[in-house]
User: Fold these one by one.
Assistant:
Number 1:
Amino acid sequence: MKKTYGTYSRAKLSELVKSSKRICAMSIEEAAITDSVKSFPKKTLENLKLNHILTASIPKEYGGHNLGLIPGTNQAMLTILKNIGKGNLVMGRILEGHINAQLLINQYGSEKQKRLFAKDAFDGRLFGVWNTQADDGSFLSKTGESTYQLSGSKTFATGAGYVTRPIVTASTKKGAWQMCIVPLIKLL
């Protein structure tokens, strides 16, 4: 009997890894062309979407493939990250943040949040984790019954301008930490 991991058989894991190798080979040329502050590896990002790599780390029950979420899938996840980073380090970093965000949502999100953000990923939204900050930090304040204000700064925001669903960490008035997923298309 063929052993499966969630929605993946070993053959499916192998297929994802092979896709990442093909994307690596194609992205090397684009990496040289887009190696500047004012450019972005859009073709590589599109290839990640087309090959379902951006939705692979979403739980099976929300349409994903459990990559990195269940035993037996971590090696494939790490190999995919290595392959993409080898072809284009910028996109490797962005993919790492996107996958980390998916893993955090799975670990700490409510069922409603998991459904919502899985849909966002399938709709092409790019996720990231913006955690590192300077001494002034980031703060979350409640401004209404279900509204909050996020203030402060981060020293790194990998994928800024392209990531539309960053997880941003901030401290609360009581000194606790909170992860916030900020839908950037709704910013004022």
Number 2:
Amino acid sequence: VMDKNELKEAYIRYTVTAGEDILGLPAGDYCEPNHLLYIKALPKVSEKIYSEGKDLQLLSLRRNTPEGAVRFKSLHYMNNILAKRELRGYASAANGAEGLMLTAQEVIAEGIVSNIFFIKNNILHTPDISTGILPGITREMVMELARSAGIRVEEGAYHWEQLKIADEVFLTNSVQEIVPVTTLWEKDKRFTVGDGLCGRMTSGLISFYRERTGISK
């Protein structure tokens, strides 16, 4: 498919549906699912973002609970779309900020299109999947790489105030990989993370990730 579209690097999304059936809520086995393959060129990402970082805006919209015991990657994006609409109302959006959602219990969940990590006292923290977050592929790889490098990793329930005093903060997703966060926003209040640049441990994890995946920048 990439050759047909003359692409060397691409974003690929493979979607499996339940197939065709009558209107309603069919609950039987999915014997004839449909398969969809969506592909587009990778968006260009400035290398500056990996040293200077990006902004993270706290949103008032809460992350909805998953439809089942675990959140699956699905086409149910209403929560994300509403979050993105809210984000557009903040000044930080002009700088390409990501939006951060909390749970109904005021616990950190995830970004609109990312998982979140923070480092405090050389310990890597990330929200536990019990918060209802998507267990992202890049998230899992980062935890694996950190542990193999001797970094202590903890999953738990964390709060916004803990992010504000973190030594380092970063986001993960499959397209942008590991992106440092250097500025936090709570409405129009600005908080600088660390010294305002990509932190030492985040930089190391970026290098480990690129080495593992064969990405060269």
Number 3:
Amino acid sequence: MKGIYNINKKMETALRSLNNSDIPKKNKDNIKGFVNFLSSKGVTVGRQYKYVYPLKRISKWLGKDFTKATKQDIQRICSNINSNPEYSAWTKMDYMVVIKKFYRWLYNKDIEDEDEWTIPVLVKFIKINKPKDAKKIPSDLLYAKDIKFLVDHCQRLREKAILMVLFESGARIGEILSMCIKDVTFDDYGCQINVNGKTGYRKVRLVGSSPMLSQWINSEHPRKDDKEAFVFCNIQNGKEGTQMDYNTLRKIFVHLKKRSGFNKPLNFHHFRHSAATHLAAHLTDA
């Protein structure tokens, strides 16, 4: 399947990035070995993919072979993850799952009977607690005035448009990043976008973000005349028009937050929750 859902292509890219990275070769081999193990257990490519980048990042934070890590090393990494304001509660939980599952495999992979596998001492302290959206407090939610503030500090139309579209649509980040120009139809009322998500295709009406989206596509998009081009694409030299990925957008958010001095959480899950809360408030007032 094309775009963000072409997970096999995404996996190839992730593994190529892993091979080209500067982490220890032994760590690369163990990450690939873990992926092969997951594949042998029938884990989908989509789930396998979600382990590659986090493990590569963890290897960089660790600064040594996975097999030489101490409990103190893992505690330090977990502490840094949990104290990072750029990570949502779900992202933090995902990292804990990745670390614990990976080390369970790493320390037991030579034992054929998985029933005999044990959890290594260095990761036994990790508790996996599913986040509760109810814990989000209103003061941390994003509001229209917050989006305006962020948009005013954006340096490119692309960033302004994606912020506004994400907030107004409440769509998942994968739905927005996989959207092509042909999926956007402008009319007298704004525009309609076709997004493809977990429940299939659906139409979403945009009003407030429509002018900025139109300006981005028609003024600065490197492939504006190509209906098959991704709406939110890369624009740097050598990558013009290629699909923007999660990590690129995450970095944009990080730099925007630092540059603007914005003091609220700014991550994908929080963005979606804020959009849903904003919509619910309007429906209640109506």
Number 4:
Amino acid sequence: MSISSETHFGIARKIVSNMTAESWETIPHAVMNYEPDVTEFMK
């Protein structure tokens, strides 16, 4: 596979990407897993 073109990002794009990465590292994230008990439902 060959590279057909190369694009350099501007300073604004670099700042936005840096702030996005920093936000994902510093902002707390919550994950909730729920497994319902369907044994009565399946009977």
